[in-house]
Design goal:
By secondary structure, this protein is mainly alpha-helical. 72% of the residues lie in helices and 0% in strands. It is built from five helices and no strands.
């Protein structure tokens, strides 16, 4: 496993709760969580556009016509994630939100891998199930849904 890739993934993971907290704060200071999410996407779009242009890409507009409709769904999923995180982080807290998101990501990933959705199939095995259950248990220990709110 590539150590640089692992470190980058961990760093990005550490930034996600900060992003949610920043967006929630922006929403409180402006026009709500949807506006804050929109602003986040606008700034992110400008950053990605600059980054893309700096790589001097070859752009062939006709290639876009060959892209299947579902390939654009990533933007919808990203928007739902950012808006939902912006809305939920003040209610759940950063740790609970991220634990639940990670548990959901792992459940979804195991299912997608098992059925080979958009990539090579990686069947579920006993070790993956144990790992999945451990992550879900860890998320429950952080979220503590059995305790009353604020407890």
């Amino acid at each position: 496993m590539n150590a640089t890739g692992v470190a980058l993934a961990l760093f990005i993971g550490m930034l996600l709760p900060l992003q949610a907290l920043i967006n929630a704060s922006l929403g409180k200071q402006t026009f709500g969580p949807v506006f804050a999410s929109l602003a986040s996407f606008m700034v992110g779009t400008l950053v990605l556009l600059a980054w893309w242009l700096l790589t001097r890409p070859v752009f062939v507009p006709a290639a876009l016509a060959k892209v299947p409709w579902w390939a654009w769904a990533g933007g919808v999923i990203g928007a739902v994630f950012v808006a939902s995180a912006t809305l939920l982080v003040p209610r759940l807290g950063a740790a609970s939100l991220i634990c639940l998101v990670v548990a959901g990501q792992l459940v979804g990933s195991v299912v997608l891998d098992h059925f080979g959705v958009l990539h090579a199939r990686q069947p579920v095995d006993a070790l993956r199930v144990v790992g999945l259950l451990m992550v879900v248990a860890g998320a429950l220990l952080v979220v503590k849904p059995w305790q009353p709110a604020g407890g």
